[in-house]
Design a protein that fits this description.
single chain, alpha/beta, 2 domains, 9 strands, elongated, disordered N terminus, disordered C terminus
Length: 449
């Protein structure tokens, strides 16, 4: 019976043996193999044990050859009476290490087929057992399939040694980089230095009172990230239309007064700037959905289908409170609903492995204080929002409350929470005519044009 099951399970004995044999014959190919292969790709346990041994030896800079591998197998407790003869057999059946990446492709294809078979069985069992509603089952099925596409599994225990190796490799990549930040740049250098950019899996909350410019700063960040990273940026606007967002992007990128842009009464120089801005924006891979009733699961579903996703921007959290639920919330129930949304957004960021920037409104609580700068407790229907977010940024402009103040366009990005470092305040400048935020040292001067 076991032999019958093994025959049905997709795997290639020859490919597994050839991959390991190649690493033993020529250690120069090990780096290429490890970049594309992992332990779970091997179906036969002895092959997996040998691969794991080579993996850890290479990771810690040890010499890899048949003698040292056998010695480490003893140390790791996976050595058997057959190990020596089996290693020799692997080297004999491998014709050449030159074709190792072809063997790796076969290995990975069989591994994917096994994973697909397993997920298919899980989905079939879930449906036949009738666990939950159809919509919830579809969401679970999509999540499992998406994880396969990303070469990951949903959940499950992972050896700390594997996690440490992945972290070590990422640290090495960051060390070799020219930049001090570890994530996508926001286009605001001082902010980048404080939060280390927008990092994968992070939920970044930008909060302010209405009209403070949170949509504008989010668009600034989205456009900069799209231009610099060349990745896809998905924007979900539950409040403004695609056309309104496009106008704001044009005004900010072309440095043209938004009101003049609406009327079309532009000078020749301004038309040229708009033409250049339109060309620049069109070359980016920014996608906009302005459906006002989207749920987090619907956003997640759309994002799973994007091949080169780098950033997700959502405007804004409180408008999703009844999205997809078919009813509205009030009082404590409403607070609970928004908290549920924020938790789902954090899960979405982890699953997609990209930063998710979500805008949020502040309550009026700050307006009753003499110092109106936002604090975490000002988050509207806060619930667990501040707990789920990795970074919370509050926007503040004295000119918002007092137009007669000395510098009405001076602004502050107040980092209220930062899992990557310290909190603090970053000085910015608000350019109302262009609906844009810039760093304090990059104050726009019309004379430049």
């Amino acid at each position: 019976m076991n032999e019958l099951m093994e025959n049905r399970t997709p795997h290639s004995v020859q490919a597994e043996q050839a991959v390991i044999g190649s690493m033993l014959i020529d250690s120069a190919c090990i780096a290429d193999v490890l970049n594309k292969t992992r332990s779970d790709d091997f179906y036969i346990q002895p092959n997996r044990d040998i691969f794991d041994t080579i993996y850890h030896m290479y990771a810690y800079g040890q010499t890899v050859d048949p003698v040292t591998v056998l010695d480490q197998m003893r140390v790791r407790g996976v050595y058997t009476d057959n190990s020596r003869s089996y290693l020799l057999e692997l080297m004999q059946v491998t014709p050449t290490a030159a074709n190792v990446m072809r063997y790796v492709d076969i290995l990975r294809e069989q591994s994917l087929l096994r994973a697909l078979s397993k997920v298919g069985s899980e989905i079939s069992s879930m449906v036949s057992e009738g666990v939950g509603e159809a919509e919830a089952m579809l969401e679970t099925a999509e999540r499992k399939i998406y994880a396969l596409r990303q070469g990951r599994t949903v959940g499950g225990l992972e050896k700390i040694a594997n996690v440490i190796q992945q972290v070590y490799e990422q640290i090495s990549i960051n060390a070799a980089s020219d930049t001090r930040i570890t994530g996508l740049s926001t286009g605001l250098p001082d902010l980048d230095n404080q939060i280390l950019g927008l990092n994968r899996g992070d939920l970044v909350l930008i909060a302010s009172r209405p009209g403070m410019g949170k949509t504008s700063i989010a668009l600034n960040v989205a456009l900069h990230a799209a231009k610099v990273s060349k990745k896809t940026v998905a924007i979900f606007s539950l409040e403004m239309s695609r056309e309104q967002l496009a106008l704001r992007l044009l005004a900010g990128e072309g440095m043209v007064d938004g009101k003049k842009l609406l009327t079309g009464r532009l000078s020749q120089t301004e038309w040229e700037r708009i033409g250049t801005a339109a060309s620049t924006i069109s070359e980016t891979d920014i996608l906009i959905d302005d459906n006002p009733s989207l749920s987090v699961s619907e956003m997640n579903s759309q994002c799973r289908r994007l091949e080169n996703l780098g950033l997700v921007v959502i405007d804004y959290l409180q408008l999703m409170q009844s999205a997809g639920s078919g009813h509205s919330y009030a009082g404590e129930s409403r607070t609970q609903a928004v908290s549920d949304m924020s938790r789902m957004l954090k899960i979405m960021a982890k699953e997609l492995n990209v930063p998710v920037v979500c805008l949020s409104q502040l309550s009026r609580a700050n307006e009753s204080r003499s110092d109106k700068r936002p604090v975490l407790s000002d988050l509207r229907e806060s619930g667990a929002i501040e707990q789920d977010a990795d970074i919370v940024i509050g926007l503040y402009r004295d000119g918002y409350y007092n137009r007669e103040c000395e510098a009405p366009n001076d602004a502050e990005a107040i980092i209220l929470k930062n899992r990557h470092g310290e909190t603090g305040t970053i000085d910015l400048v608000w350019l109302p005519e262009y609906t844009s935020y810039v760093s304090a040292e990059k104050r726009h001067d019309d004379d430049e044009y």
